[in-house]
Design goal:
It is a single chain. This protein has 19 helices and no strands. The N terminus and C terminus are likely disordered.
């Protein structure tokens, strides 16, 4: 049986796992948020439920980094999916009166295990996919994750109308059982297994390196610059979250129907951007990295400057297509440029800084849009984009500079060991 599982294990199961996981998760999350909003009459509480699963990863970033640094990523995915299944199944035995409150608490707890799955699957791909196909693998994984999120959120309304909250958790448990099976099909990296065996001796150099990897920090200057651009995309996401209501209501003077049209077109545009990113990064590999941040600003500014329904929707959709392509580009560059030692910290910070950056951006952009309107908010987005792009302009030489930095860093470490402590 063991040899049978070993023969079918493949990194190609990762996109399917992420699709299944996010589909079931957002099916329950959106339905639960709607029920909390209906029960309390508070849009704030409903929004808090939607963002609650990201809170545990933010608060427990250091433990998450230690897990990713010390244990095999495929094993962490299996444990995380099994734990999510057990937590979800616990909702099925909660008494009816306490089910709504317990469901919110269980979703929060499960958020940490979902962060483990998202982070560890990135490490699985990095360890098992050849370097020349890593960008493609990461892009397909992001597409499947986004597709699962979109389908799960879209099914939440129809499912909630025919199923009770307990029934929704039962469906989610069945979906998680499938993702747990897919987790067992993930492969192990021979190099990672060898490194884990060598690192068991705490006094060995490998053991010392493993201890250093548990520190949550990124020292490579190129990876830091890439993180700055990755957080810039998170800033765009926060603006978009505000803009889907502010633009149709305040800029175009429409009602809730126009908001629905705007949201639907936005969802299609983001999905199209994720699909377009796959061939774009293959054929536009020589395009300067600054292009991916500056190009989306032109249709964004035109969309809010025109202020007419059809042109604005079309131009804003083009902005979202380019926005999603930029996200995929910098996500791939970040995962490919990180060294093996810093990869756990990179995926941990990605899982924690991205949602926190989105949350801060929503607050800032929401207040600015309320006080000054959509056009000044878009101008601020463009100004911040230009400043961040200018400050990180050397990122376009990332791969070569990263290799040079690693060589200098290793040489410096060897020199310090040979010469003793420096004054």
């Amino acid at each position: 049986m063991t040899s049978y599982f070993a023969s079918i294990r493949s990194p190609h199961f990762t996109p399917a796992l992420l699709f299944v996981n996010t589909c079931g998760s957002f099916l329950v999350l959106v339905a639960l948020s709607t029920r909390v909003g209906s029960a309390t009459g508070s849009g704030l509480l409903a929004g808090a439920v939607l963002s609650a699963p990201w809170l545990p990863a933010l608060l427990l970033a250091a433990p998450l980094n230690r897990l990713l640094s010390r244990y095999a990523p495929e094993g962490l995915v299996r444990l995380a999916e099994a734990a999510s299944l057990l937590v979800t199944a616990a909702a099925l035995v909660v008494p009816g009166r306490a089910l709504l409150v317990a469901a919110v608490c269980l979703v929060v707890v499960r958020g940490f295990f979902e962060a483990v799955t998202r982070s560890a699957t990135s490490v699985v791909l990095r360890n098992t996919v050849p370097a020349q196909r890593l960008d493609q693998a990461n892009t397909v994984a992001e597409i499947c994750k986004l597709t699962g999120l979109s389908i799960g959120a879209a099914l939440a309304g129809p499912a909630a109308s025919v199923l009770s909250l307990r029934g929704l958790f039962l469906v989610n448990a069945a979906v998680l059982a499938l993702s747990a099976l897919l987790a067992w099909a993930l492969p192990s990296s021979p190099a990672a297994v060898a490194g884990a065996g060598a690192g068991k001796d705490a006094g060995s150099p490998a053991g010392a390196d493993a201890g250093a990897r548990t520190r949550l920090r990124v020292e490579d200057p190129v990876v830091r610059r890439l993180f700055a651009r990755f957080l810039l995309v998170a800033f765009w996401q926060g603006f978009h979250t505000v803009a889907v209501t502010v633009i149709p209501l305040h800029l175009l003077g429409g009602g809730t129907r126009l908001v629905g049209v705007f949201v639907a077109v936005s969802a299609v545009a983001i999905f199209a951007g994720s699909l377009a990113a796959l061939p774009a990064q293959r054929y536009l590999a020589g395009v300067p990295s600054t292009t991916w941040t500056l190009l989306p600003m032109a249709p964004l500014l035109l969309a809010v400057a025109v202020g007419r329904t059809v042109p604005t929707i079309v131009l804003y959709a083009l902005f979202l297509v380019l926005f999603e392509m930029a996200f995929v580009h910098y996500n791939n560059r970040l995962l490919a440029s990180a060294s093996d030692e810093e990869l756990p910290s990179v995926v941990t910070l990605r899982a924690t800084l991205l949602p926190s950056g989105v949350a801060v951006s929503i607050l800032v952009m929401g207040a600015l849009a309320d006080l000054a309107g959509p056009l000044p908010a878009a101008l601020v987005v463009a100004a911040v984009t230009v400043l961040v792009t200018a400050a990180t302009a050397t990122t376009r030489q990332g791969p070569r500079r990263t290799a040079a930095w690693r060589a200098r860093a290793h040489a410096g470490v060897r020199g310090k060991r040979a010469a003793g402590p420096a004054r």
